[in-house]
Design a protein that fits this description.
410 residues; elongated
């Protein structure tokens, strides 16, 4: 009976299509992730050999990102932290490694046993961390002397504590003591040749790249880290290190973590045009399906808000127009009424003028008859002529006054 393949992630049986029956992960995907993890582990190991501890930490973290069960990467990461004077992160890496693989073939078991057998190491690590934290607090309050006292205690307990040396260099730079700062930074470069903080401080001190490289090369490699890890020394110079020393295994068994594959470097220059065309097509697709709909949505929202504002403004203007039309209508009615009343008044004035003219005619006729009668009775009424003329004249004035009362004032 054939044994079914087991999943590399959970150990459940794998179906014929290459997917796990439990976690539903593709085995090809898992193999690629494991190989990528081993690739970054090899890169971190190569960087650690040349004392590029900062770069090795980044590579090993990338390795664990692809495969968290890579105990070799965790063990090497813990060794690098231990070499840099950071005991707590190193213990964290080793404890997790032991929880993943508690077997005797895991080197983290040996590391933890040696630390447990030497309690003074953990006590010194605790004291070092406490002194560094005090120095950092004093430095924040600009108590430089107290900070230097605590840093000297921390460095005396652990010569490889890189953070303490960097803080001392920063304090010396602030006190314009470039020589002491360079001495501290040189010690850091002997432990970690590409420490970014140390390189930044050296550049701020005015050191050229050539001097920095010479300072890093002036200190020989320390093989204690790699011998402790179990890697054989180089037999000849200018050659790659010899193979790694793996724990002994029983016959018939094979440790899957001991299989390492290095990816072949590919020349991707000839595929540049294809990549460019594919990138343009992908950009167009992303623009069409992601950017254009959002732009259209924003445009429609703005258009809708503007239409609503225009409709509100138009309704308000229409209401104003209706109110103005009603006022105009009322004013026109008042004007027509005033025109009719003015016509009536003109008619009354014309009638009154006709009556006045008729009265004037009657007065003229009556005055003529009176004159004729006066000539006939001139001899008999000679004595009374003057009195009658006066009376007639007075009556005429009174009649004219009565007629003028009927005329309108101009």
């Amino acid at each position: 009976m054939a044994v079914r393949e087991r999943c590399l992630y959970c150990g459940s049986p794998v179906s014929t299509n290459g997917y796990c029956t439990s976690c539903r992960l593709s085995q090809d995907f898992l193999r690629k992730a494991i190989n990528t993890s081993k690739y970054y582990y090899n890169m971190g190991l190569d960087k650690a050999r040349v004392r590029d501890l900062s770069g090795a930490i980044d590579s090993l973290k990338s390795s664990l990102r692809y495969n968290k069960n890579n105990t070799l990467a965790r063990n090497l990461l813990g060794l690098i932290y231990y070499e840099m004077g950071e005991i707590v992160p190193a213990l964290n890496c080793w404890v997790v490694s032991v929880n993943i693989n508690p077997g005797k073939d895991n080197l983290a078991v040996r590391y933890l046993k040696e630390l447990r057998d030497d309690p003074s190491t953990l006590e010194n690590a605790s004291t070092t961390a406490r002194e560094f934290n005090l120095a950092l607090e004093h430095a924040k309050r600009y108590d430089i002397d107290l900070a230097m006292i605590n840093l000297n205690k921390a460095v005396s307990l652990n010569q490889n504590f890189i953070k303490a040396h960097l803080l001392m260099a920063l304090i010396y730079i602030g006190k314009n003591r470039g020589g002491m700062a360079r001495k501290c930074l040189a010690h850091v470069m002997s432990l970690d040749r590409t420490n970014p903080t140390a390189l930044h401080y050296l550049r701020e001190l005015g050191e050229s790249e050539e001097n920095i490289t010479r300072m890093a090369d002036s200190y020989g490699e320390t093989e204690e880290l790699f011998n402790y890890y179990g890697v054989e020394e180089e037999k000849e110079k200018d050659k790659r290190p010899s193979k790694m020393v793996y724990p002994r295994q029983e016959k018939g068994k094979r440790n899957q973590e001991s299989v390492y594959k290095r990816y072949k470097e590919l020349n991707l220059a000839r595929y540049s045009n294809i990549y460019m065309i594919a990138g343009i097509i992908l950009g167009i697709v992303v623009c069409y399906f992601l950017i254009i709909p959002s732009v259209r949505k924003n445009y429609n929202e703005k258009l809708g808000t503007r239409e609503q504002s225009y409709i509100k403004e138009l309704s308000s203007k229409n209401s104003e127009i209706e109110s103005l039309n009603s006022t105009v209508k009322s004013l026109n009615e008042k004007a027509s009424k005033t025109d009719a009343s003015s016509v009536d008044k003109d008619q009354e004035i014309s009638d009154l003028k006709e009556e006045v003219s008729q009265l004037k005619k009657k007065l003229g006729e009556s005055s003529k008859t009176a004159d004729e009668k006066g000539d006939g009775n001139a001899a008999g009424e000679g004595d009374n002529s003057s009195a009658e003329d006066g009376n007639s004249a007075q009556e005429t004035k009174n009649n004219e006054a009565d007629v003028n009362d009927f005329l309108p004032e101009e």
